[in-house]
Structure formats: structure tokens, C-alpha cells
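Example record used in the benchmark description.
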Amino acid sequence: MVFLALLPVSAQVDYVENLMTRRYLTCTDILYNVSWLIPEFYEKGNKDTLQAIIAYWEDKCKFSEEQTRCKILFSIDDNTFNESMLNDDDIFKMLRICERITQHGKKRVYWDRWDYHGIYPFDNEPDERLKNFITTLSKTLLETKELLSVEKFILRIYANDFEQASQMLDSDKLNGTRIKELYYQGQKAFEQDAYFHNDWMSGVWIPQGNLDLLGVHPLIGYRLGLKLKKLTTDISLGLKFIKSPEVYQVYKDNIIWDTNYFAGLYFGLDAGYELFRFGKNSIDIIGGIAYENINTLNEKNENCCDCCSNNNNKITHNLNSLNLNIGLGYKFYFKSQRSNQRYLGLDFKYNFVNFKNPHGTNLDGNIFTVNLIIGNVISDLFSNF
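Model output (C-alpha cells):
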């Protein structure tokens, strides 16, 4: 103690540092070191040392995503790869990453922290050098080696070529592999589970019979509901507008009015059942029950003396009917059997209505509607991956 007291502060620090002879490497330290050692010894072609480095890393730090990638890469490079080297968790992670990138448009993937299983502190992410080495080597192997389909798929994931990997999943190139089997399990889970979905609709409202007098009108709408296996159920809202081409008559307040005013509402419960699917296309039988409304008057009340103060200076009149409808729907899915499926479709429906217009123009007849549908299944298949 007397000796330390006689030393200046800087000398004391140096002296204490020299006493620190015991060493403990954390997994963060090891990861930092291997991120330099693995690229260095790969360039030298020293494969025995590479294997020893990975074995040391695995022994000291148990499992990590980077270890698996390095082992798989080197086995592909050495022509010793076997699909059994991948466990289901490894495959699910690749499928999940592929799905995430293709759905959300990310250009580059980073390992999720949960892949480290708590080994690495959250404020010490793995060195970029190792990631860049894995990506570069994967691209090189894709260009220079004769590869099995499974090897190509893995290397495309590691090389961040997610579009090509996704296309392989949708083709028959991986048939008979565990990767494709687990991918089908994800598809089956998508088909079996219930998911929210929504549609935006734009179309035409085409009256039939005496109702034809009202003319064809544009129609816009929105649907929100559930999809369970092949069945969909929706709450639907539709709006129609634009004046009628012909004048018709309605009875209101003991007066027969001549009008061509037209606006309307559709609010109801719709359902659909997928009859069959071919590729990315499907045909559904659809139908529903709804409240159908036509607003026929929106006239200023000239005889109102005090109504302007109470916002009652308009005369309105509505025709209402129960709407029972049935038809066919077609959908084209942009991402076949994927999470967040987007689709484009057409709905053709015949609507049975009964608008009573006493003392006015006979408006007996039904309605044919055609809608262009832009929809999305609001789901998250990542939970399966």
C-alpha cells in the first residue's frame, strides 16, 4: 500500500492493469473475434482451422444463428451438405425471413435478437464483417458451383435474394424436401385459421324492370369481415349517387313531387364460399342480406318560416327495401396462399328488392350489380414461422 501511494496516478493504473492476468472471454468477445478469423482463414483455404474455430465457438457459446449459417455455407462449399443438417427451427426462420422481406419490401435482413437466445447483450449486435462475409460467399457459391435446389434456396436466403427464393417456394423445384413440407404446413395453417380481411369496391348499380327508370349509377363500397377456410363473412357498406336520367314521381306531405334526385345506401351482411381454386385464381358463390335505401328528394322547403333556425329547411324522402342477393365472385391472388394476401376480383350479384312508392311512379324491379374488388387478407403467417 505504501508502494502504491508513492506512485503517480498514471503509474498506478498501469500497475493494476498488469495484475489483470486472468481472462474470461464473453460470447460477444468470441463473436467479434470469429468475425475476423473466419473470413481470414477461409481466404487462406485453411479449412481445418475454420472447423476448429467454429467448434470452439459452439462449445463456448452454444447455439447461434451465425454458427448455423457458417456451418451450412462451408458444407455446401465442401459438397458435404445434407438437408438433415437443418432442423425445423432453422427452416422456419428462413421461411419467416423470406416471407417478411417479400411482403414488406425490406432489401436487407438482419438477425433478430431472439435468435441469440439471450447469449448476446442487446447493446452488442454481431459484427457486420461476418454478415458481409456470409452474403458475399453465398453469392459466389451461387455463381460458381453446381448446386441442388435446396442448396440454391438456402444460398439465396443468405445472399438476400428473397424474390428468387420466394419463387422457388411457389414452384415445384423444392418438391419432396422438408423445406417445401414445412412451407405447405404454413399454407395449411393459413387455410384452416380465421383471419380478418377487407375489400374496397367500385362498380355499377344496374336496375331492372320498372326500376330501370332510375338509370345506371356508380357504386362504391367497403367490406370488413372474417375468412375461415373457404368461407367468408362480411359487414358491407355501399353508396350510390348521381342524378337519375329521367324524372320520376314520389309522394311526400300530400304532394306528388317530380324529381330526378338520386342517392342511396346499402348496408348488410355478405357471405361467400370458395367453390374451387386453380393456381392463383378462385371462383366463389356469394350472397347476402341487406338494407337498401334510395333517397329520392332533397328539396328546399319554401314554405318554412322558422325552420332555417332549426336546420329543417330541406324536404327529403326515402324509399327502403330488404335486399336479398346472390351471385358469383372471381379473385386473383397476387401472393398465392401467403400472409397478407392481396387480391383483385369481380363480383356479379343479382339483388331482389321491393321498393314501395305509393302514389308515385311504379318502381317495381330488381337490381344487378357489378363490382371491381381490391382486397387484402389481414393476417400474419409469421407466427407460424
